[in-house]
Queue: 4 jobs
Job 1
Amino acid sequence: MTAAPATPVTAPSAVPTRAWAVWVVGLVAYVVAVFSRASLGVAGVEAQERFDAGASAISLFVVLQLAVYASLQVPVGVALDRLGSRRMVLLGALTIAAGQLVLGLADDVATAVFARVLVGAGDAMTFISVLRIVSMWFPGRRVPVLTQLTGILGQLGQVVAAYPLVRALDVWEWQATFVGAAAVSVLVAVLVAVALQDAPTATDAPPVGLSQVRHDLAATWREPGTRIGLWTHTVTQFSGTVFMLLWGYPFLVVGQGLAPGTAAALLTVMVVVGMAFGPLLGHVVAVWPLRRSSVVFAVVAATVLSWSAVLAWPGRAPLALLVLLAVVLGTNGPTSMIGFDYARTENPAARLGSASGVVNVGGFVASLVLMLAVGVVLDVLTPGRSTDYSLGAFKAAFAVQYVVWVLGAWQVLRYRRRIRARLATEGVVLAPLHQAVAARLRGTSAYR
């Protein structure tokens, strides 16, 4: 809104072919990172057999990997501003390759945990680096849609993990499969080294001292646009992420009594809705950049209402209501990407990496906290060490979400007020939303 946009390119109406080629290279790197992130999840049974470990130990792999990912976002963002996207994506691919190689050769839990830490670290370097490429190569109005497409198409890595990887484990077994996965990451690193470029015009960031790094990071944190991006990511991402990654399937099968195939279909609905909703949302954000928070509040309200209906329903909820919940949760991931758009438009290009890193922390920290909180409540309300959780226990556990929703929505509202007050001092006073919408439908403007 007020800071210089992060796009240093005076872009013509037609985007150069080179820009699309660079984006595809970055996207391929992100797809492989997502594939590596999800690879252990689909090999859970084989991992238990290979390492002679229980389900809790395998769950630790996932939680620890996400914790590493979240904890590295700010340091990676700072490094991204200094080193550029090409170097960070290259380093991420090589780190992931090392992690997959160690996992393929590991025969004990400790070594496997170290391997997943490496994968989480490499994964942490990839996504925000690719987003920076989008901001540097494309005009501002295209960035929201391409940001959504990057997030959506990146999830093809989960598809590759769910099908070809499982098949590879059946044919080649553990070691050959993960060594092969490491080789794929090495090939990506070679592709990045050859074809990826930070920006249309090569610009080497001047070396800066530690004091300047601290100054820039403090400036990033003080910017209200960074804060609203952080809380936007927090309040919109966590519910869908926790449902998809860990507790949704048990809730549907054990708590709601659905058949496993039906539960899997509902999770698939979430993915399909996200893929359809993302580009549409990106277009809305591009056309209505000053109304992004209204979209955030609408999605949060829909999420809260759908969860409230499911949790308040006496006994098991009807299938139609669970389908509605899945549809609404499918919009959460794309909406969380609005947080990165705030980081892009409210910070200068030199701080884009650190701002994106700060934003990306929010949703993953909230997701980790909720994953642990749901598990604790289920254990407290379930006698002994049984995993036969009751529907009442699940409902009490998922009620923890309301704390995050209230806190996150309040913070988004708080920083929106600060940004709009700053706009008002510059002569930009937003008309009420209904007036702006009515004017747009008439083909006019609500502003002079």
Job 2
Amino acid sequence: MKYDVIIVGAGLAGLSCARALHRSNTPFLLVDQSDSVGGRLRTDYINGYLLDRGFQVLFTAYPDTKQELDYESLNLHEFYPGSLVRINNKFHKVADPWRKPINLLNTLRAPIGSLQDKLKVGLLRRALKSKSLNDIFNGEDIQSRQYLKNLGFSEQIIQTFFRPLLGGVFGDSELVTSSIMFEFIFSMMSAGETTLPEQGIQAIPSQMGQSLPHKSTLLNTHVKRVTGTAIETSSGDHINADTVIVATDGPSAETLIEVPYPSYKGSTCIYFCADKSPGIKDYLALNGTGYGPINSLCVPSNVSMSYAPNGKSLISITVLGNKYDNDLDMMSDVVTQARDWFGNEVDDWEHLNSYVIPHVLPDQSPKFSRIKDQTVYLENGVLVCGDYRENGSINGAIVSGKVAANLALAKLASI
């Protein structure tokens, strides 16, 4: 059988592409080597706990997720609009004063920076709110650290607040990420809520996949060769199409086709379960000291009770980079730091699972942030899409898939 379009990769970009083709009544086949759609957005069910493969959230202000997702069906649960920052051996509450004015005094007292720094956060929030996304993505592109310095922020607030907050979002502990991405994500944080789907992060791609036609998705199928008009699977099958789109991440695409892609940021997500929840409620706790392996910590079951059995708590810890040669050393340091934060109750935590993720997000430093400006057509006629072609976010992956679909439709119309 010949298809109009074959899409290799059923992550968000591939699913977005497939949905756009389906809306145009274009026959397609979506192929993935995994046993389920979702790509990097996967959730495991272990002993009654929902474990997302890496700490991931959905910003409800993302413009394209608003179009593609049914938020009500996802039953989104919100984090507190703010953070707990660990400095000077205690947690300090830093809240969004526009949404939680009752905590304004605590925020002003928090030792994350000067009063002037905190006023500048408000000014930045207001400035970005009035800035269109088109203006953001076509603006000056420098490292986020330098961007913040240029705005007059002190080194203290950069290190204690912006570094762990944005480090977790970008997988970047040095804030070398593009200032364009900083403006985009900070504006999304300010304009909407930070959420978890009730059934885990994989509920997002699952919902997208459920809208596709029956038998349009072929799972558990490894593609070993791609041309502009066909794919070959590891079992030797040849499937033909008028157009082929590679919608995998950069490293996977590189094994199939020669396509430029940035390096990737890695992280480790460690899950513990406990009878007693650490006292951080539905906040994201940030390491404002810069010391120790923990960048951030949260209790997903405090955000959505579905993440843990009744009477139990799920703790999620994120460690950035690949600093450890030995997992046991990392675990030892993580537990030591957690015990310093929460005391001996940590001794009662039970390790559930760890996810070492080498390809969390593409490098989005300024030198790579314009990769999307390169053509998505390769010399052999293959189209490519993925978050690394647009920007490293749920929204970016969805946008990239739509772009590829539109180009495929234009190609088909010319045949």
Job 3
Amino acid sequence: MSAAPMIPSPEAYFGKFLPARDPLLQHMEQEAQRENIPIVGPVVGELLYLLTTLGQARRVLELGTATGYSTLFLARACSAFGGRVLTVENDPQMAARARANFQTADLADTIELRQGDALEVVRGLGEPFDLVFMDIDKSFYQPALPDCRRLLRAGGLLVADNTAFRDADGFNRAIAADRGWRGLHLYAFLPGHSPEKDAVTLALRI
């Protein structure tokens, strides 16, 4: 039995199916491209929106805000359930720009931004979260993992971006070796992402 034919030029094909974005998100994408600001792009942004919505996550923690592009997807999703996002950014200039974007999006009441080192901030947190999204320096992923596990409720979801980066190797191996996680590494073509060929890791806290 012959294999079913695949779509020719799949990257060009699926590149046509980018999710719709409002003018603010499009402006942030253009700004990121112009200033070389790494953002998750519309495909991973929509994935975050869907995962937050499917899990009905009301308490969301984000490590790594930048200008707040991914934060808007998380906040728009959890606001439907009366939820909130706590996001952490170390760079004060990026934090200021993110706050301005949250105001423009009319989501400032849904998002709390703490400016500081992500590893230090998570050590001081105690409340449980339904979803954690990691997008900080990849060398910090593994050191942050124990606190992410502590802060996630049982059945909560950890999402980590850029896990095809070499510095994420220790984190990837730790997820795979720890029976406290049920994880999956997805290597994919992600149009508009930085970079467009990268991995996203999903891990359920057992």
Job 4
Amino acid sequence: MKLFLNAHATHPDWRMALALATAQLQAQLGRDDHIDTPTLGWVYLSDHYAAHAERLLDELRAQWPGVAWVGSVGVGIAANGVEYFDEPALSLMLGDIAPAHFRVFSGAQPLSAPPLFAAVTAQVHADPAAHDAAELIGELASQTRSGPLYLFGGLASARNRRLHIAHDVLQGGLSGVAFDASVPMISRVTQGCQPVGKVRRITDTERNLVLTLDGEPALDCLLRDMSADALEPREALQRLRGVLVGLSDAGDAPVRGGSFGSETRVRNVVGVDPNRRGVAVAELVEPGMQLAFCQRNTEAARRDLVRICTEIREELEPEALALQTALELRGDDIDSAPHPARQIAGALYVSCAGRGGPHFGSPSAELALVRHALGDVPLVGFFASGEIAHRHLYGYTGVLTVFTAGTSNPTASR
């Protein structure tokens, strides 16, 4: 299979950054192992370029006629092994997926509008200012005629214009690109938090206020899990700073092997009610849902990121490559041998704006982990205000999606 075209650049002037990236893309066009007729493009801009998004998109259209563009703005953007935070930069990728097998959509061009398109997966970008973003995501996931739609993507993040791109520069609502079953991909969610207590069932609520867990006051459960139940109030409140909750629907498996599973959505604790002994969280909750108190944990995030990359490698890597993988881990030369990376045409990575190098310990550390695991493959993405996977809006997670050759149906590769 052939690799997608991929480029990234940083420069105070967006025109210079685009020129640098274009030169990289043009240099790849003549290579036998890269595509030569792009049809779909991804563009991610740091918010330093947000004011110039329309002009930049016009330039991309002029340089690559016939290419459909999707993307977003972010406080940080991602490339293969590199992340750009708080600096002017852009990241581009061009694929050659046949136009009959994808459809770009937005509020002005809904996915449900005729003609019929049999979507099974969709990449979604959305405006975090939309108060009903989670509801819109859920509606999109369930609106297709061929069954539930598997979603992946994220909410735009910016200190100025929180925009997303689908043919045009957009604000508000959501947009993206949908794919039919002939576009093989694998998508995984990586968590960044560690449970600090057991999973309990929510038994009484009032909107976003959790009143009881397994019939016990929620605040009492929280204080006990944080070993703060014997402390005086001021010390107890200090101990509770940084506490989050992991929520999952009834029947899901929220914890696996001591870590959160992909079904768990991490939300902030936004307050406590000492009188009713309740805990307020940043999501509407209902009796029957499951909850575990948690905290951000760098080592847990690192382990889980390695886990999802390993799962992708194992799905792509035939048994015949087992010895070769062992040689790679010892640092031996693999240039002349088959490699699982060569089953990946391109990759998309959306991570929480609170992750990245600062959370993983050094600049570009998160993307370096992905590159070490997957190899030197084309990759673009951004750091989001919320991550989208399955049918939910997540937080403090990463969503890694790879376009592959000969993999299983993407809705089963989660």
